[in-house]
C-alpha cells in the first residue's frame, strides 16, 4: 500500500493511504468459491496474482532490503478486483534486514521450517510463505497439515513432511505450477530460490493479465472526498 499525502494540524498527523475498497485476497477467494458463475480462481488468475506478489517481494528484498515475515492471503489487498490488481500490506512484522534474522514471527501455517526450528533466517522465509499461499490458492488446501491439525502436529508437518501432489484437486493443475511450488517450498533455505529467480521460472514468466469482464459502476455514485474540516487551515491548504 502507498501513502498518497500527509496532512497535519496542531494535534494530529493524517496519512492519506491508497483507497482499497475490494477487501483482501482470502475474502475474494472464498467469495469466488461460492460464485455460481465464475467459481474458484483459475490457475491463470492465480498465476497472475502470484506473479504480482513476487514482483513486490523482489522489490522489497532487493531495493528496500527488507523482509516482510508474514506473507498470507489476508495481507494482499485488491486495488482493482476486476483486473486482479493487488497491494501488499500487513507490515507489522517486517524488518529492515534481509539476513541474520531471528524470532518466531509470522502466522504458523505460513512459517518456514527454519523459523520453526529456531534457526537464524533471511528473506527467503517470505518465499516459503508465498509458496504456501500459492499451493492454497491452487487447491484450497494447505500443503502441510490440515484444519484438524494441532499446533504441535502442524509444526512437525512443516519440518518433516514432504510436498505432495496427490489427490483429485491436482488433476487440472499444470506441471509448470507444480514445478514452481517445488522450488518455492524447498525446505533447505540455501537451495530455495530468491523472488527474482522465481520470476524467471516458466510458470511465473508466462503469466498474463486474465481476461475478465469489466465491473459496472453506478454513475450516480459520488466520488469520495477528503473531509477538509479535519485539517487546520494553518497547516493545510486545499486550493
Question: Overview of this structure, please?
Answer:
- The protein is an alpha+beta fold and 239 residues long.
- The protein has one domain (3-8, 22-210): Transferase(Phosphotransferase) domain 1 (Transferase(Phosphotransferase), domain 1, Orthogonal Bundle).
- Helices cover 33% and strands 8% of the residues.
- The protein is built from eight helices and four strands, in the order ββααββαααααα.
- The strands form two sheets. The chain has a two-stranded antiparallel ribbon.
- β3 (76-80) and β4 (85-88) form a beta hairpin.
- The longest helix is centred in the N-terminal third of the chain and has 21 residues, at 43-63.
- Mean pLDDT is 86; it is low at 213-221.
Topology:
Blueprint: E1 3-8, E2 13-17, H1 25-33, H2 43-63, E3 76-80, E4 85-88, H3 113-116, H4 124-139, H5 151-160, H6 175-184, H7 195-199, H8 202-205
Antiparallel strand pairs: 1-2, 3-4
Helix pairs in contact: 2-4, 4-6
In short:
The chain has 239 residues and is an alpha+beta fold.
Secondary-structure content class? alpha+beta
Query: What is the name of the CATH architecture?
Result: Orthogonal Bundle
Low-confidence stretches: 213-221
What is the count of helical runs?
8
The CATH homologous superfamily is called: Transferase(Phosphotransferase) domain 1
Backbone shape: globular
| Average pLDDT for all residues | 86
Helix content: 25-40%
- Strand count: 4
- How far is it from the N-terminal to the C-terminal residue, by CA? 26 Å
Could you say how many structural domains there are in total? 1
Widest beta sheet: strand line-up: 1-2
State the CATH class.
Answer: Mainly Alpha
Amino acid at each position: 500500500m502507498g501513502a498518497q499525502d500527509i496532512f497535519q494540524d496542531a494535534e494530529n498527523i493524517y496519512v492519506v493511504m491508497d483507497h482499497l475498497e475490494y477487501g483482501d485476497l482470502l475474502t475474494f477467494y472464498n467469495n469466488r468459491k461460492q460464485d455460481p458463475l465464475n467459481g474458484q480462481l483459475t490457475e491463470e488468475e492465480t498465476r497472475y496474482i502470484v506473479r504480482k506478489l513476487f514482483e513486490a517481494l523482489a522489490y522489497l528484498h532487493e531495493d528496500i532490503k527488507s523482509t516482510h515475515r508474514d506473507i498470507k492471503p489476508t495481507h494482499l489487498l485488491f486495488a482493482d478486483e476486476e483486473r486482479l490488481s493487488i497491494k501488499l500490506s500487513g507490515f507489522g512484522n517486517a524488518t529492515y534486514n534481509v539476513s541474520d534474522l531471528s524470532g518466531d514471527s509470522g502466522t504458523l501455517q505460513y512459517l518456514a521450517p527454519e523459523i520453526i526450528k529456531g534457526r537464524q533466517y533471511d528473506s527467503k522465509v517470505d518465499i516459503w510463505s508465498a509458496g504456501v499461499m500459492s499451493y492454497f490458492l491452487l487447491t484450497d488446501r494447505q500443503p502441510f497439515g490440515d484444519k484438524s491439525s494441532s499446533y504441535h502436529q502442524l509444526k512437525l508437518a512443516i519440518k518433516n513432511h514432504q510436498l505432495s501432489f496427490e489427490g483429485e484437486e491436482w488433476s487440472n493443475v499444470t506441471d509448470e505450477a507444480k514445478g514452481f511450488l517445488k522450488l518455492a517450498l524447498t525446505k533447505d533455505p540455501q537451495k530455495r530460490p530468491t523472488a527474482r529467480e522465481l520470476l524467471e521460472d516458466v510458470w511465473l514468466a508466462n503469466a498474463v493479465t486474465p481476461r475478465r469482464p469489466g465491473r459496472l459502476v453506478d454513475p450516480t455514485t459520488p466520488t469520495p472526498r477528503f473531509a477538509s474540516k479535519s485539517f487546520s487551515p494553518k497547516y493545510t491548504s486545499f486550493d
